[in-house]
Amino acid sequence: MQSIRKTQLFLAAIAVAALAPFLHKAFHIDDPLFLWMAQQIAKHPLDPYGFSVNWASFPEPMWAEMQNPPLCSYFIAVTASLVGWSERALHCAFLFLATMSILGTSAIARRFCREPLVAALLTLFTPVFLVSATNVMCDVMLLALWVWSIECWLAGLERNRWWLLVLSALLIAAATLTKYFGIALVPLLGVYTLARNWRSSSRLIVLVIPLAAAAAYDFWTRSKYGHGLLSAAIFYARDTPMRSSASAFTQLLSGLCFLGGCLFAPLFYAPLKRIRPLLCVAVPAAFVAICFYFFVPTSPEWLLGTKTAAIQLEGAFFAAIGAGIVALVIFDLARDRSAENLLLALWLLGTFGFATFLNWSITARTLLPLAPAVAILLMRSVPPSDRGLLLRYWPIIPAMIMSLLVATADYRHANSARQASNVYQQRFRNENATVWFQSHWGFQYYMQQWGATPLNSLDSELRSGDVMIIPSNNTAIVQIDESKIFPPQEEFFPVLPFVSVFGRGTGAGFYTSVRGLVPWSIVETAPELYYVARFR
Q1: Which residues does 258 contact at the CB level (< 8 Å), separation at least 6?
Q2: pTM of the predicted model, to two decimals?
Q3: 3 state DSSP class of 506
Q4: Residue 91 Cα distances to 16, 63, 76, 211, 270, angstroms
Q5: CA distance 304 to 281
Q6: Residue 483: partners with Cβ closer than 8 Å, 6 or more residues away
Q7: With contact defined as beta carbons under 8 Å apart, do 132 and 367 qualify?
Q8: pLDDT tens across 291-332, in order?
Q9: How does pLDDT run across 122-139, given as a tens digit for each residue?
């Protein structure tokens, strides 16, 4: 027990040390949606979606734009009431959730492998975890609830304690109200329980709790907003046109690319002494790499700029790693059909399948819940003869370096939008004319804070002398008639110049595959470009 506590303290200290440099990160991507909902909750606790937001170039009800349940925003609202709404205060609060995610991973890993410390560190030092943990979206909160619900369920079955099973069910309910994918824990733990001991089937009755919570939430939102938000989210991905043009094979290749790019630690554990498993992994990995290079579309041109071949090679490399992870899961399950291997396989493959085929686009954040499963699987796969000190720990070093670089690139990208907003605030705050802006994400949050107005493409009245500010690397941009404006000024704001997670022309689309071929890229990255124009 003393050793376990020391390990937990060590992991908590490492997690804090890894994330502390990013506490001043600007709010980024979808952070504003969670913040605005939290501000609404602070005023009207029982009406989280009861306002409109301009997120697609025109105002819409929040329930139409926000495809996530409100528990994360309730967490933000409670936290902000205690420590304030600043970036540093809220990132500190989410640092607690990130630390709990790593400690939960270690707790599960103690049951499944001999190297729980390594498994937890490999989860921490992945691009998908470090980047997600520096935002205030719901992903890391989901992960914390996810791993602790699994740990409580396993402990409840092992000790025959009903209260632990009930606690697990309550955590699953909370996970579902944090992000709808949390409900996947119900079939995951149900199948594991029956595979472990079918006589334990009576214990599955407690899983009615999260199902009832989900149904009650859907009924409540239907009665309050006229739409059941859980059921609406189920059909959102199906009805989203962004995915309709891609074939299932292309989607699979892209999903494997994102999987390998977000969780590339397996690269450093190969080859091992087991030749047969190595061949079972290497052959499909090589096949997938070739297919990715030749079959994944590279258009539109603005995604890749002039670096198409280099980004294709990087994507093929990531896809090979992703294929190796999937092949390793399948091989281990075929070799040992234990309940533990079945749990890991369903955990990993189920999350991968959802992120690749059912989500509105492939996003790194959607793959986050499978990070602990991949790390634990790796530690289960390392043969006893290969478990020396060097083999156990040396892969953490390159994984840490690359993950911190990716997180730094995202940090610099986020901060460039805040820097731009601050510059324009100083320049235009005394303007008599209206200062308009286009685009959304973190830039919108900071522009609105000082009084700039988001363009409403349906009915905004633009007058002579008004100012329009447009980032080139953003979303929901409406074309402006050039005859109505003076020639725009171009202004640049620096980012990390050699790694990108979301830069125009870099092929990187960490937050959505719609905007990038790979989750992150090592490539020359141009500064963020903004246009400033005045109407004639």
Answers
A1: 318, 322, 355, 356, 362, 363, 364, 367, 513, 518, 519
A2: 0.94
A3: coil
A4: 11, 25, 10, 31, 36
A5: 29
A6: 536
A7: no
A8: 877 777 776 665 666 677 888 888 888 988 898 889 888 888
A9: 999 999 999 999 999 999
